Amino acid sequence: MQLSLFTDSIHPALAPTNLTSSRHPIHRWVNFIAGYSPEFVSACIREAGLSSGDTILDPFGGLGTTPVQSLLDGFSCIACEANPYFADLATAKCQAALGSVNPDEVFSALHQLAPYKGELADIYSFDALTFLNKLIPETELRFLVNARLKESEITSDNKLFYRLVVSIILELTSKSQTDGIYKAPTTKKKSNSFSDALLRVESQIITDLNLIITKQDINYEIIKSSAHNLCQKPSSVASLCITSPPYLNNFDYAEMSRMELYFWGYASSWREITNQVRSVLIPNTTTIPIEIKRNHELYAKRLSNEFIEYVRPIIDELKNRRSQRAGKKDYYSLIFPYFAEIKKVFTECFRLLKSNADIHVIIGDAYLYGIHITTGKLTLYLLQEIGFEKSEIKLLRNRGSRWIQSKREGAGTPIGEYWIYGRRP
Questions:
Q1: In this predicted structure, what is the pLDDT of residue 405?
Q2: CA 185 centroid distance within chain
Q3: 332-345 confidence digits (pLDDT tens)
Q4: Where are the domains of the chain?
Q5: Is the pLDDT of residue 185 over 80?
Q6: Does pTM top 0.85 for this prediction?
Q7: Which of 37, 63, 183, 370 could cross-link to 409 by cystine, CB 3.0-4.6 Å?
Q8: Which of 220, 278, 187, 279 is nearest to 58 (CA)?
């Protein structure tokens, strides 16, 4: 299969990145580097030849690239997102794509704000306030706190859009650099004042909303929980699946949103972030809950004997190398849980897709203690086991020099980022 994207206006290497999002209304409001491009979504839609009334599925919705672009292209969408902050912002972006937000209410409320005069410790736990103080100047934090408190007065249909706007301002007022995808409190950058950030965000959002041509008779559903809850949906409801699961040992999707989880009160401590957010995410990093690590062998029961036979030597070698390393990261405990959960989610996708519906997956390989984990090929194998046919895998790009530096032991070949295609018979 050859997606038209690969002969269109962007280079294939940009398909699995967010680097083109700045060109697109709504998408550019908030996204992260792990996401794929809106062009990729539109290319998959074109190739599928969808009809009016068709629905697109994304079990790993993130900040809404698939659902937002689906709506902008005129199709309904069902998506899951386990990180509650991401799910709320993805919902707000979908509301905007359908023209169902009221920016006047939001910006009128924010322009009238004064700084919070009370004790910040009355609003935040010690852990949360300690972290936020490292990232945000107190003057701006006091404006932001009053913005958070003001949310209760916003009309119910507009609350998540309000939360989105304030979250963008929160990022702009931060004085800490984002290192790749994580906030680094010790790395400084120039920050915006609350008032300057508000004007900047208002200008961009109003401009974008005026560019949107809303479509009729389409809808969306963002399921704010683990993709396992797709089991509650009836079979054969989707005509296309476009998604990207968490990459093995790539980003901790709880830690990367730590500032926002604390600011909005989704969690008040590191422990709560683990218990309330990490516990429902795909187990892809060594920061997963300890119970998963302890019971990692139990996840093998969900995998085929052939799959286990292939990855067992990898697990054994990871155990061996752990004993030789100072860091002693227990990467071996990720393998069975990660692939078992991936298989469970894509089994649900198979059930939800109609006959002859396509699935498109963006995923990358990993190096753990110098061992190349061919996540792309292993995911393709799982899709084939589930029953997807006409499956293919295509290298889109190599993922960057940071993975082949000397500190990445054994990384003698670049890590690939892949597009996987399959069809439900």
A1: 42
A2: 22
A3: 999 999 999 999 99
A4: 103-211, 285-425
A5: no
A6: yes
A7: 370
A8: 220
